[in-house]
Specification:
The complex is a heterodimer of chains A (about 170) and B (about 110).
Chain A lengths: L1 E3 H4 L12 E8 L2 E7 L19 H22 L12 E13 L8 E12 L2 E9 L5 E13 L19
Antiparallel strand pairs in A: 1-2, 2-3, 3-5, 4-7, 5-6, 6-7
Chain B lengths: L3 H16 L21 H15 L15 H11 L2 H9 L2 H9 L6
The chains are: A alpha+beta (about 170), B mainly alpha (about 110).
């Protein structure tokens, strides 16, 4: 299933200037590919950096997380559930962990990353994912492993894991 | 095949790695991981996910939450659920080396 920008907005709440997914293709229940890009007029480039605009690594990981969110919401929709797309939908995917990330070359304004994201372990509304991204010339650009939680927007204090129920205790 | 007691040591290593606890801090293997030891649900998920990655399996959809209650329960779950070959392979893993390879990364952009 191929998804263009307008369809992607159906699955995740991110909007300009923080929606980095240009298009995506659901390859299966656990796999999605997608193209992410950053327009030169994105305000982030005024500060990162004034004389050398480059996409911050954290935003590249965020782009991978957005693609994971698209797939999670797409899978939910297949089961008759809605999440992520607008103020009328209460459930949203939240990035809760980055286990590992490596950035192999700088990403410049207007360049695109071709991602492949694979969902991994899932438990209690939390899902791990791994992602690889390549440049238009097929050079390895990013690899990362992250976790996403499905959270209730109206009750963010109840996002799994936000609060520990007890201090670390040892015997 | 490894015993629950032996597997418990390996599970504790993984919990310690998740919590980044020093080795001289003792963990009670029978304390509730969330209510008593203090893992929040994200740490519990990371621990259980890491444990399954090291087992080379996905978290089963029917995983009994009680299995995640304590370090001893997790060890008993592993010994009860998986065959000897998988458990022995799990026991042979160098947790520190595996974690180091998982965390190695490149330069931050």
């Amino acid at each position: 299933m191929k998804l263009l920008a307008a369809q992607i907005e159906r699955y995740i709440p991110h909007r300009v200037p923080f929606n980095f997914v240009e298009s995506a293709e659901v390859l299966g229940k656990g796999d999605i590919s997608g193209i992410c890009s950053w327009k030169p007029d994105n305000p982030i480039f005024t500060g990162h950096f004034p004389d050398f605009p480059v996409v911050p690594g954290v935003l590249i990981v965020e782009a991978a997380a957005q693609l994971a969110g698209v797939l999670i919401a797409y899978n939910a929709e297949q089961r008759g559930l809605r999440m992520g797309d607008s103020s009328s939908v209460d459930m949203v995917g939240m990035l809760i962990g980055i286990r590992r990330a490596s950035f192999h070359r700088p990403v410049l304004p207007d360049s695109r990353i071709f991602f492949k994201v694979t969902l991994g372990n899932a438990l209690g509304g939390m899902i791990s994912a791994s992602a690889e991204g390549y440049s238009e010339s097929n050079d390895k650009t990013v690899k990362c492993e992250l976790s996403v939680a499905i959270a209730n927007k109206s009750n963010l204090a109840g996002v799994p894991g936000v609060q520990s129920t007890a201090p670390i205790r040892t015997s | 095949m490894a015993t629950v007691e032996q597997v418990r040591v390996r599970v504790e290593e993984i919990i310690r790695a998740t919590l980044k606890l020093d080795s001289d801090i003792e963990l009670d293997p029978d304390s509730d991981l969330v209510k008593e030891i203090g893992l929040d649900s994200i740490e519990a998920f990371e621990s259980v996910a890491l444990l399954h990655e090291m087992l080379g399996v996905r978290i089963p959809e029917d995983l009994d939450p009680k299995a995640m209650g304590t370090i001893t329960n997790l060890a008993a779950y592993i010994v009860g659920k998986y065959d000897a070959a998988k458990v022995d392979a799990f026991m042979a893993i160098d947790v520190a080396a595996r974690l180091a390879s998982m965390h190695e990364g490149g330069e931050l952009a």
